[in-house]
């Protein structure tokens, strides 16, 4: 991956105190997003990770205004799109596209691939204004198939004739048809077998380099996220608990939840030692999140303050942001006396790698 | 070892009628499972891992299907067993858990009622005795407040609790063999770690052997004593988990491991990937099924390779017989 872009440029997309609530009956409210603020610079790949129900997909959808957030702001390229009517939003949609997990559900089974990939080209006007003619569209389709590594013959075939990996290439081709600047990919490789997954991850990385794309990559697989991301945001129950450079966050997690999440990933390596004790309990319901720090009932380093005082996201000396009263700081692991050794210094210490 | 063998599968072939002819989905799968052992069957989708487990359970009920070969459980041949006899065996001596506990429980009865029912189907004990055993089992499975959970309906439980309840139900008659088909695939990673921890404890606490079916190489590495790698319905490699992961002997195993992005250490610039996709059963070549995607392919691969010893493993590849076993693992170019 190329180095991070300089932070002085204005971000391509940013959210400020973003909130998304759903009424779930009997006066109860589900807080899918509870005040999320982040900024993604052009050329960056932001990985959004967390367990189911943490709000990572909702955040991705809010960023693209597929849903209208209940509160806060979404700013795309300096323009506030939070409450923008659909009619005005439409021209901006050319610049922001999405790739979904279920490659089959995302494609109309009754239409040939060429038709599906051409749709955005027909719906949106050409850069200079006016509609694209048939020749222009046909030329673009050829380019797109080439870009995602599919043969031209694919254009005349139907979605069911392709394997999962090939179908995801079709989805990517459609998302890139209008040369967007931002692509939000929601678990794009989760449904694929590992040997195919590697092909698609490589494709995402190649396309980013070739087209200067910016990704928001939503995934639960930490290893996939580390491979593709420049920065990572870890979410828990609707809020960001840790946000920073991918290597910093995943190699030296500061938040106990990040550390536990990394420790829980089963790794395909020959095992030489015992495994760390798993985290207790389930993720609580987002309808009734715990008071104080949302993670405190499961936290191995919980102290009195954590159950009453909700921590806010704050910047650590190394630049990352953490929502924890007692974060693990690289040089001072003894700040967390309650943590088992494997958590106190990051998982690498307790689990040697080959 | 032979004396301790609980399950011995030899040349298991399952053929299903597709397009008017019998197509072998699984071909000549052989392995043994010892007492208190955890064996992992790992493969990508379509590799035949679930069909293998269903055949062992006698649950292949497609009209016209043919199951051949031998499945010996505690010395008793299971292939061709009468459905009635099989039914008495299932649940009591061999139990199975699935990826989706929601479909394994009926939604209209409480979880406790269903576990009681399972116990009472195989043993003559009173409702009250059955319930107290249910509560104890749920407690053993790490269910907090088991008495209360027993009175709940499946939809009222979280995914992790449902999976624990299903394992409790599977263990209710103290089976010698537990077949777990993707038991953690639908769970979050922190909950998966708890369930894998539970499965590892079963042999100690219940003396059970576990056949763990999964697509996740990481789950196998952290849970299983021995591993069987399936590719397109055939055994590609089998052996002790540690050796297999440290020095895979089959080009497929090696390529599969290489294509998984590492979570630690330097980050590869590109992920080594396997080109193409696995052949479907009716397109499986007569020779090595992996030949089309293999970087070591040569003339000898046109003949189906038998399993041969290679290090601590058995490998279905011609390379070891040609005296040139697989070179050490590919080391990718890392980012700075």
TrEMBL record, chain B:
<dbReference type="GO" id="GO:0015833">
    <property type="term" value="P:peptide transport"/>
</dbReference>
<keyword id="KW-1003">Cell membrane</keyword>
<keyword id="KW-0067">ATP-binding</keyword>
<keyword id="KW-0547">Nucleotide-binding</keyword>
<dbReference type="InterPro" id="IPR003439">
    <property type="entry name" value="ABC_transporter-like_ATP-bd"/>
</dbReference>
<comment type="similarity">
    <text>Belongs to the ABC transporter superfamily.</text>
</comment>
<dbReference type="InterPro" id="IPR013563">
    <property type="entry name" value="Oligopep_ABC_C"/>
</dbReference>
<dbReference type="GO" id="GO:0005524">
    <property type="term" value="F:ATP binding"/>
</dbReference>
<dbReference type="InterPro" id="IPR050388">
    <property type="entry name" value="ABC_Ni/Peptide_Import"/>
</dbReference>
<dbReference type="Pfam" id="PF00005">
    <property type="entry name" value="ABC_tran"/>
</dbReference>
<dbReference type="GO" id="GO:0016887">
    <property type="term" value="F:ATP hydrolysis activity"/>
</dbReference>
<dbReference type="InterPro" id="IPR027417">
    <property type="entry name" value="P-loop_NTPase"/>
</dbReference>
<keyword id="KW-0472">Membrane</keyword>
<feature type="domain" description="ABC transporter">
    <location>
        <begin position="7"/>
        <end position="257"/>
    </location>
</feature>
<dbReference type="GO" id="GO:0055085">
    <property type="term" value="P:transmembrane transport"/>
</dbReference>
<dbReference type="GO" id="GO:0005886">
    <property type="term" value="C:plasma membrane"/>
</dbReference>
<dbReference type="InterPro" id="IPR003593">
    <property type="entry name" value="AAA+_ATPase"/>
</dbReference>
<dbReference type="Pfam" id="PF08352">
    <property type="entry name" value="oligo_HPY"/>
</dbReference>
<protein>
    <submittedName>
        <fullName>ABC transporter ATP-binding protein</fullName>
    </submittedName>
</protein>
<keyword id="KW-0813">Transport</keyword>
């Amino acid at each position: 991956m190329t180095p991070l872009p300089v932070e002085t440029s204005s971000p391509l997309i940013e959210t400020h105190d973003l909130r998304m609530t759903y009424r779930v009956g009997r006066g109860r409210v589900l807080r899918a997003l509870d005040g999320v603020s982040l900024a993604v610079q052009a050329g960056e790949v932001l990985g959004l990770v967390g367990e189911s129900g943490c709000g990572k997909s909702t955040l991705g959808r809010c960023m693209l205004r597929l849903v209208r957030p209940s509160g806060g702001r979404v700013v795309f390229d300096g323009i506030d799109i939070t409450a923008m009517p659909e009619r005005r939003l439409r021209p901006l949609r050319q610049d922001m596209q999405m790739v979904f997990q279920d490659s089959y559900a995302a494609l109309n089974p009754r239409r040939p691939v060429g038709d599906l990939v051409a749709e955005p080209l027909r719906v949106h006007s050409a850069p200079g204004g006016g509609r694209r003619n048939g020749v222009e569209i046909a030329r673009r389709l050829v380019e797109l198939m080439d870009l995602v590594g599919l043969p031209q013959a694919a254009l005349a075939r139907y979605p069911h004739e392709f394997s999962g990996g090939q179908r995801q290439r079709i989805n990517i081709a459609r998302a890139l048809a209008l040369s967007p600047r931002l692509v939000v990919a929601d678990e794009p490789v989760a449904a694929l077998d590992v040997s195919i997954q590697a092909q698609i991850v490589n494709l995402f990385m190649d396309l980013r380099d070739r087209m200067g794309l910016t990704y928001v990559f939503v995934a639960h697989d930490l290893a996939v996220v580390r491979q593709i991301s420049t920065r990572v945001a870890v979410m828990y129950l609707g809020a960001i608990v840790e946000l920073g450079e991918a290597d910093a966050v995943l190699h030296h997690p500061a938040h106990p939840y990040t550390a536990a999440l990394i420790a829980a990933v089963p790794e395909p390596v020959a095992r030489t030692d015992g495994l760390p004790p798993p985290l207790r309990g389930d993720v609580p319901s987002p309808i009734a999140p715990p008071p104080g720090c949302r993670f405190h009932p499961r936290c191995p380093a919980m102290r009195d303050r954590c159950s009453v005082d909700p921590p806010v996201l704050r910047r650590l000396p190394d630049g990352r942001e953490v929502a924890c009263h007692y974060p693990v700081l690289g040089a001072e692991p003894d700040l967390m006396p309650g943590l088992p050794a494997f958590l106190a210094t990051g998982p690498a210490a307790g689990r040697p790698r080959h | 070892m032979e004396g301790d063998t609980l399950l011995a599968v030899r040349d298991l072939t399952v053929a299903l009628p597709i397009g008017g002819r019998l197509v072998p989905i699984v071909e000549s799968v052989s392995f043994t499972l010892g007492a208190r052992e955890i064996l992992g069957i790992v493969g990508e989708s379509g590799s035949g891992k679930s069909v293998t487990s269903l055949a062992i359970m006698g649950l292949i009920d497609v009209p016209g299907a043919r199951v051949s070969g031998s499945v010996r459980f505690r010395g008793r041949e299971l292939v061709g067993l009468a459905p009635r006899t099989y039914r008495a065996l299932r649940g009591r001596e061999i139990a199975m858990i699935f990826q989706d506990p929601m479909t394994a429980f009926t939604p209209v009865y409480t979880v406790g009622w269903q576990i009681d029912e399972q116990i009472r189907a195989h043993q003559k004990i009173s409702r009250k005795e059955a319930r107290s055993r249910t509560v104890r089992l749920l407690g053993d499975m790490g269910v907090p407040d088991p008495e209360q959970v027993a009175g709940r309906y499946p939809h009222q439980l979280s995914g992790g609790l449902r999976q624990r309840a299903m394992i409790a139900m599977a263990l209710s008659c103290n089976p010698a063999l537990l077949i777990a088909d993707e038991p953690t695939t639908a769970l979050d990673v922190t909950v998966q770690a708890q369930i894998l921890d539970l499965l590892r404890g079963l042999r100690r606490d219940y003396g059970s052997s576990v056949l763990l079916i999964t697509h996740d190489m990481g789950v196998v590495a952290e849970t299983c004593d021995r591993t069987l790698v399936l590719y397109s319905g055939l055994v590609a490699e089998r052996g002790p988990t540690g050796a297999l992961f440290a020095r895979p002997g089959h080009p497929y195993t090696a390529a599969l491991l290489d294509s998984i992005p590492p979570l630690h250490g330097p980050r590869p610039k590109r992920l080594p990937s396997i080109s193409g996709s696995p052949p479907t059963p009716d397109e499986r070549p007569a020779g090595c099924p992996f030949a089309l995607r293999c970087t070591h392919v040569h003339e000898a691969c046109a003949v189906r390779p038998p399993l041969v010893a290679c290090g601590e493993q058995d490998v279905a590849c011609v390379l070891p017989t040609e005296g040139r076993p697989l070179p050490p693992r590919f080391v990718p170019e890392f980012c700075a």
